[in-house]
Specification:
By secondary structure, the chain is mostly helical. It has 2 domains: 81 residues; 68 residues. The protein is 69% helix and 0% strand. It is built from 6 helices and no strands. α1 crosses α3. The longest helix is centred in the last third of the chain and has 28 residues. It is flat.
């Protein structure tokens, strides 16, 4: 009889992945995208009673990639998302941004993002029309800032549309 796992939990996601891929599929996935490891390690990571066994991020991604290839699911990512949503739902201070402020913040960030992109692609820039490593970092930072604001906006919209 399978052990009871919290839902959502990484253990539950890994348990679902093991059901999809079986031992050989888990080992093949990790070997393909990471290094060689035995399926027993991942069964231990899926055991909620063994608190000192944790899956590495690279292995988690490898297993989800193989699950996507096998049946279109990503059980570990889904459980990560559910854990983070649960955290946001339980922590009022994470949700305290209001919609009008977020829309203004989004407009500012989009403007800054566009400026960053235009400067980075300018023929007069340090790398000409090609992005330099420093420009790539600035563009990536701008994308991350935009992404965080969009996530806050999704949360705020969700809060304003509860029925």
């Amino acid at each position: 009889m399978p052990k009871i796992r919290e839902i959502p939990s990484i253990e539950q996601g890994l348990y679902e992945a093991i059901k999809i891929l079986k031992d050989i599929g888990i080992e093949d996935a990790v070997r393909k995208y990471s290094t060689t490891k035995k399926a027993s390690l991942f069964r231990n990571c899926a055991d909620p009673d063994l608190v000192n066994h944790n899956i590495q991020q690279i292995d988690s991604v490898a297993i989800d990639k193989e699950c996507l290839n096998t049946n279109g699911s990503h059980p570990l990512l889904s459980n990560h998302q559910a854990l983070l949503k649960k955290h946001v739902d339980e922590n009022v201070n994470v949700r305290q941004k209001n919609l009008p402020d977020l829309i203004n913040q989004l407009a500012i960030i989009i403007g800054e993002f566009q400026t960053t992109i235009h400067k980075a692609q300018s023929p007069d820039g340090p790398g000409g029309a090609k992005l330099t490593a420093e420009e790539k970092i600035k563009v990536n930072d701008a994308i991350n800032k935009l992404d965080l604001t969009l996530k806050d906006l999704k949360i705020a919209i969700g809060e304003n549309n509860k029925y």
